[in-house]
Specification:
The complex is a heterodimer. By secondary structure, chain A is an all-alpha fold. Chain A has a single domain, classed as MetI-like (MetI-like fold). Chain A has 15 helices and no strands. Chain B folds into 2 domains: 213 residues, P-loop containing nucleotide triphosphate hydrolases (Rossmann fold); 67 residues, CBS-domain. Classes of the chains: A mainly alpha, B alpha/beta. The complex binds adenosine-5'-triphosphate and magnesium ion.
């Protein structure tokens, strides 16, 4: 019987090694040649991130707490939720995790803003063309199913360890939901309402900003909510490539078997997640409720 | 057909599907809608539509569901592009307009009212009504003033700051109507504008529309599948079937001289006494009649008691100036009301 029927026909070892080597070498050459340029391209982002982190760390705790509570009230109009958020922050601070929480808050905030800034335009582009949608959907699928560590490798090769590679990894991981839900939200806008805009002579931009985006907003907010949740879930992994914050103590706790340390910091991440989730969701629900009384 | 005022549609075809041009020869040869769909995978939307709509008149487009009414009106403001044919408005070729000119046409000269209202749910009544004005570039203050006037005119004063979904269906369509009127466009397209409303509210809306029309004299294209509505509103009524116009005439033509069995069936249930006018069925002037007079424009129902009381059951028919123009007998009247009128047997 032929050999290839008995054992799986594989590329022979030498060739396989050569293939991997050449890919690695190619990428290494790329990062050697362009790494600095790309890194300096992201410098402004680094400044913003550092500036924001310093701002949060430098501000007195009660001011930060007041700001978060104010934001919460402004978006949800719920007193109970606002009080609960303030209490959660107080407990986090009381258990000695204030500084790490501020660092995590800073990177999550910047990552979310970045994800929105990238995601909404991409979602809009997808909603306008079936070709773009057909091209983007598989990419989004891959982004969401590819194990995180795999795309950490090229990012780290390019940028080394630090805040920027961490931020980029978080954004890549967290951006798909905003893109998907922006696309979906715009596509779900009532056809007749769009037709009315057309009939009154609205141009493409007037339709987008005056009708489509406002009507897609509840869906977009749901996407932002998921994006924040996914960014938070990346905190521990991002700490492996040098992002400071609540993730690092968790990592430390795993390697040293400090159960309480891991539990406290993990709980703080969960606390942040709940806070963000409630704020974005209740905002989404509020704008939705303003409209949906119709049915 | 160029150069004339009003809306002129000529040789208009619309075929939906992957390659409309490839099936056009078949369509021109008169393939049926069903055969086109089953054997060639295309939907026949409109077939050889020729229609001229006089300025300041109300043209009704009527027909059963799926016959192409919506498709036809959407060609007038080019929400749909034809497969073949022409559309002219006041001597301007609508199909030759570039994007900017088309936007200008839609902003300033044609407005539209939709069956399911199609209001903007995230805007207040005021901002809905002012939408067309915003598209025209009217300033916020002017908009508030002009939109406010129309809101009042349709009877919604006090609701300026409400969101549309807090209003009832009838009120929502008043918003839709005000939104269309606010732009001062001379042409208004109404696609089954009142079909989604309860009968009572519907008749209120018709009254409102006719009242407004007396002042505004717009060119209105009014789509409906309701014959009574068509007769009450339309100066002319075009009846569509499977994408083609079967008959286009005034209500008297349609009811007294239906072009074919399809239309005859359509008008079967109608109360002729309230539709047909004496002038449409009267006989020639007869001497020796001097009893009570009957107006040319009177509905048969209103003429009945007059003629019944007249000596010999026959009355003189007079025009608006009181000059005799014909005669009407009770027999003829009764025959016409029951549908067995002399001018032509309905079936
Ligand atoms: N975009 C489209 N693609 C394919 N077919 C279409 C499209 N729009 C309309 N049609 C078809 O064209 C025909 C006419 O549709 P149209 O909406 O004009 O009918 P209508 O008379 O307005 O009916 P209704 O009373 O239900 O509103 C129908 O058979 C419909 O299925
Ligand atoms: Mg229709």
């Amino acid at each position: 019987m032929a050999d290839w029927l008995q054992s799986f026909p594989t590329l022979d070892e030498g060739a396989l090694r050569a293939l991997k080597k050449s890919i690695d070498a190619g990428y290494r050459a790329f990062s050697r040649n362009y790494g600095d340029a790309i890194e300096s391209f992201f410098d402004p982002l680094l400044y913003v991130l550092i500036w924001f982190e310093r701002l949060l760390l430098g501000a007195p705790w009660w001011l930060v707490m007041g700001a978060v509570a104010g934001l919460c009230y402004a978006s949800s109009r719920g007193v109970r939720l606002t009080v609960a958020v303030a209490v959660a922050f107080f407990v986090i601070g009381y258990l000695g995790m204030w500084d790490d929480t501020m660092r995590t808050l800073a990177i999550i905030f910047v990552a979310t803003v970045l994800a929105i800034a990238i995601g909404i335009p991409l979602g809009i582009a997808m909603s306008r063309s079936n070709h773009v949608q057909a091209f983007m959907l598989p990419i989004l699928d891959v982004m969401q199913t590819m194990p995180i560590f795999v795309y950490l490798i090229p990012v780290v090769m390019l940028f080394g360890l630090g805040k920027i590679p961490g931020l980029i990894a978080v954004v890549i991981y967290a951006v798909p939901p905003v893109i998907r839900l922006t696309n979906l939200g715009i596509r779900l806008v009532d056809r007749e309402v769009l037709e009315a805009a057309d009939a009154f002579g609205a141009g493409a931009r007037q339709k987008l900003f005056g009708v489509q985006l406002p009507l897609a907003l509840p869906n977009i907010m749901a996407g932002v909510n998921q994006t924040i949740m996914m960014a938070l879930s990346m905190v521990v992994i991002a700490s492996m490539i040098g992002v400071k914050g609540l993730g690092q103590p968790v990592l430390q706790a795993v390697t040293n078997q400090y159960f309480a340390l891991g539990l406290f910091n993990g709980a703080a991440v969960v606390g942040l997640a709940i806070v963000f989730d409630r704020i974005t969701q209740s905002y989404g629900r509020r704008i939705q409720a303003e409209r949906e009384a119709r049915s | 057909m160029t150069g004339a005022d009003g809306i002129h549609i000529g040789g208009l075809y619309k075929v939906f599907g992957g390659g409309p041009a490839s099936v056009m020869p078949l369509v021109r040869d008169g393939v049926t809608k069903q055969e086109l769909l089953e054997n060639h995978g295309h939907v026949l939307g409109l077939r050889d539509i020729n229609l001229s709509i006089a300025p300041r008149s109300i043209q009704v487009v009527m027909g059963l569901s799926g016959c192409g009414k919506s498709t036809l009106v959407r060609h007038i403001n080019r929400l749909i592009d034809p497969t073949e044919g022409e559309v002219w408005i006041d001597g301007e070729d609508v199909l030759a307009l570039d994007r900017a000119a088309l936007r200008h046409l839609r902003r300033h000269r044609i407005s539209m009212v939709f069956q399911r209202f199609a209001l903007f749910p995230h805007r207040t009544v005021m901002d809905n009504v002012g939408y067309g004005l915003a598209m025209q570039g009217v300033s916020r203050a002017d908009r508030a003033e002009r939109a406010g006037r129309w809101i009042e005119r349709v009877g919604l004063a006090g609701y300026e700051d409400s969101y549309a979904h807090h209003l009832s269906g009838g009120m929502q369509q008043r918003v839709g109507l005000a939104r269309a009127l606010a732009t001062d466009a001379e042409i208004m397209l109404m696609d089954e504008a009142f079909s989604a409303l309860d009968p009572l509210i519907r008749s209120d809306m018709r009254t409102l529309l006719l009242e407004l029309q007396k002042e505004l004299h717009k060119t209105i294209v009014f789509v409906t599948h309701d014959l009574e509505e068509a007769i009450e509103i339309g100066d002319r009524i075009a009846i569509l079937r499977d994408g083609g116009i079967v008959q286009n005439g005034d209500s008297q033509d349609i009811v007294l001289r239906p072009a074919d069995d399809y239309i005859a069936e359509f008008i079967q249930g109608i109360n002729r006494g309230r539709v047909v006018r004496v002038g449409s069925i009267m006989g020639p002037v007869e001497s020796g009649l001097d009893g009570p007079d009957c107006s040319l424009d009177a509905y048969l129902e209103d003429a009945l008691p007059v003629v019944a009381r007249a000596p010999g059951n026959e009355a003189r028919v007079v025009d608006a100036d009181g000059a005799p123009v014909g005669a009407i007998s009770l027999d003829r009247l009764i025959g016409a009301v029951s549908g067995n009128d002399p001018p032509r047997e309905a079936r």
